[in-house]
Amino acid sequence: MSVSTLVEPAYRSVPASVSTLGPEVGDLARLAGFGPDPEQQMILDAVFATDEHGKSAAFEVGVVVSRQNMKTGLFKMIALGWLFLTDERLVVWSAHEFRTAQESFRDMDELIAGSPHLSRRVKAIHRGNGDEAIELVGDRRLIFKTRTKGGGRGLSGDKVILDEGYALQPMHMGALLPTLSARPDPQVLVGSSAGLPESAVLRGMRDRGRAGNDRRLAYFEWCAPPPAIACALGEKCPHALGTPGCGCDKPELWQVANPAIGRRISLDYVASERRALPPSEFARERMGWWDDPVEGLVPISAEAWVACIDEESSVQDPVAIAVDVTPDRSRAAIAVAGRRSDGAMHGELIEHKAGTGWVVDRLVELASRWNPCSVVVDPSGPAGSFEKELLERGFRPEGGRWRLQLVGSREYAQACGALVDDVVNGRWRHLGQQPLAVAVEGARTRPLAEAWAWSRRHSEDISPLVAVTLARHGFATHGAVEAPSPFFLR
Prior knowledge:
Blueprint: E1 11-13, E2 19-20, H1 22-31, H2 38-47, E3 49-50, E4 60-64, H3 71-84, E5 90-95, H4 98-113, H5 116-119, E6 122-126, E7 133-136, E8 140-146, E9 159-162, H6 170-176, E10 187-192, H7 200-211, E11 217-221, H8 227-230, H9 251-257, H10 267-276, H11 279-285, H12 302-307, E12 319-325, E13 331-339, E14 345-354, H13 359-370, E15 374-377, H14 387-392, E16 395-396, E17 402-406, H15 409-424, E18 428-429, H16 434-442, E19 445-448, E20 451-454, H17 463-478
Parallel strand pairs: 4-10, 4-11, 5-8, 5-9, 9-10, 12-15, 14-18, 15-17, 16-17
Antiparallel strand pairs: 1-11, 2-3, 6-7, 7-8, 12-13, 13-14, 19-20
C-alpha cells in the first residue's frame, strides 16, 4: 500500500461547511517536522471547517481507530492548529490515565521545543506533576489533565481533547458540557479505540456518528466488516487462532481497520499480535470490533426520568432522609423523599459533596430542622460506618430522638424496584438535578437473590441515586399515612 493512499473509514459523517483551515494546519504540522497522513488531513479538514457564520461546523469530533494508527499524532496537529493558527485561549488535553496525559505533554513539549518557529512564541513550560501546561505569549495555554472518578471538573476550555474515550463516563460529560455553553466557539474532540462493555458515552457517540443524522458531529471510524460478514461462521465464530475462515486471520481486513499498516505498523507485527493476544483482545484492538454492553444497565430510560422532572415540585411533611457514600469514600450524598400534595412521590438531593467528614453533622442539622419520619442507612454499604456515631448522636431504631432505619438486603432490593416502578409509571417527581441525572444514566445493577439492586462496584458515583432510593423506602415504611377505613368497617 502506498503511503499516500487514503484508507477510507468504515463510517464517516461530516457537517456541512463553507471553508476550512485544515490545509493550513497540515502545513503547520509539516513545519514542525511531521506531516499528516491522508486520513489525518481528512479529519483536520473537518475539525477546522467553519460554517457561514465563521464558527466551527462541528461541535463534537469523534475518531475511533485502533491503537498506534493516528490518534496521538492527530491530536498534536489539532492542538498546534488551535494554539498557533486560531489562537484559542485555553486548550485542554485530558486522558483517563495519568501516564497517558504525561506522555502527551512530553510529546508536545518536545515537538514545540524542536521547532524554532514555534518555540519562540512560548512564554513558559510548566512541568509539575498534575500541573503540566504549555503557555504561549498572548495568554494562550495548553493544559493536560487526568479525568478522575469524581467527575470532569477542571476539563472546561475553549477546545477540549478527550483521549481514551472508551473510559468516558456520564459524569465526565455532565460536568464538562454545560461549562462550554458560554464559550464563543467550543469544540470537543473524542479519540479512542473500539469500545469496552462499559463504554456507554463512546457508544452513544458511535451510534449517532454511524447514523449520520447529527449535524454538529464529525465522526470517523475505522474497523473491519463485522463478524457476520468477515467470518465463515458468522457471529458464532469464536475468533480462536486457526478457526477456518475467521476474519481475524485476513490481512486485507487488518489493513481496512488499521490505516497505518505499511507506514508505521508492519503486517508481520500484526501477525505476531494475532498469535500472542487473546482472541477477544485482538478482535477489539486490531479489528475494531466493539465489545457488547454489560448486562444490568439501569432500568430507567432517559426519557422516563426526564418525564418526571418538575422544577416547582415540593414535598409535604413528613419526609425521610437517607445517606450514601461512594466505595472509595471520595463523595457522599444526602437525599430526602416524601409525598406531594397531589399524591405523587417526590425525591430531592440535598447534599452531594466531597469527603465524608461533614455527613453526620449535616444529618443532625437536617433532622433537627425537619424531624424526619426516618433516617435511612444501608449498614452493609459504605455509609454503614456512620451507624455507631449516629447512635451516639441520638438516632435510634426505636425510642431515640430520631428514628434510624437500617435496611437489609431484602429491603434494599425492594427499595430499588419500588423507585423504578414509580418512575416508569409516572408516580415520581424530581427537580432535574444534574448529579442525580448523571447517577441514573451511569448506574448498573447487580443480582440480589431473585431481585436486583444498584451496583456501586460497576458504576461510577451513584451515591445520589442510592440516597434517593433509600429515602423513598424510608418514607414508604414510616411516613405514609394510612387511608381512612371504609364506613362499613368502622
